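Lecture notes, part 5. Sequence design as translation. It can be helpful to think of inverse folding as translation between two languages: the language of shapes and the language of residues. The source text, in structure tokens, appears below.
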């Protein structure tokens, strides 16, 4: 299974990065990374070399969508029981080692990315953060190449508009 270990090592950072930018939570990104690597282990014998990368991207995206769905259910429950839910102070703490301006911009980008609907969010993350080619994204998401290009253009525009709105109004 040395091929598995090489694939897992080569992809674990990409999986985590995609999950982190998609979910905005280190803990959830770590959970998704672990889940995807377990699935890779389980399906390793049936995966061929050229199909492994698109498969990993799809599985990671689907795992992130599952977390989003669970989060929506949890948020709906918390909205109905808001008096019972204490504020989590660790979620509000800043990382003291990070330059404040860079940290603020990164927070704005992450928040804006979470505001973008699927599949635009996924395509922007895969292209701009993961640096996948248009063809790799098209294969991974089973979309035509031109659709990926159009969705990427629209996703970038949505991101730009959200960031512009944040700068002008401080709304994110």
């Amino acid at each position: 299974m040395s091929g598995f270990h090489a694939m897992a090592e080569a992809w674990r950072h990409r999986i985590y990065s995609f999950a982190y930018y998609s979910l905005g939570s280190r803990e959830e990104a770590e959970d998704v990374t672990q889940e995807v690597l377990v699935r890779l282990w389980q399906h390793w014998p049936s995966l061929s070399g050229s199909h492994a990368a698109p498969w990993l991207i799809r599985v990671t995206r689907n795992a992130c969508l599952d977390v989003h769905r669970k989060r929506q259910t949890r948020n709906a429950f918390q909205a109905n029981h808001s008096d019972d839910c204490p504020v989590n102070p660790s979620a509000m703490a800043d990382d003291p080692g990070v330059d404040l301006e860079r940290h603020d911009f990164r927070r704005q980008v992450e928040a804006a990315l979470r505001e973008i609907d699927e599949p635009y969010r996924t395509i922007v993350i895969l292209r701009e953060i993961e640096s996948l080619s248009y063809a790799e994204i098209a294969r991974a998401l089973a979309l035509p190449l031109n659709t990926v290009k159009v969705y990427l253009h629209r996703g970038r525009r949505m991101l730009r508009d959200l960031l512009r709105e944040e700068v002008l109004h401080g709304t994110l």
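The translated text above is only one of many valid answers, since several sequences can fold into similar shapes. Helices lie at 2-23, 26-43, 49-80, 100-115, 120-129, 134-141, 145-169.
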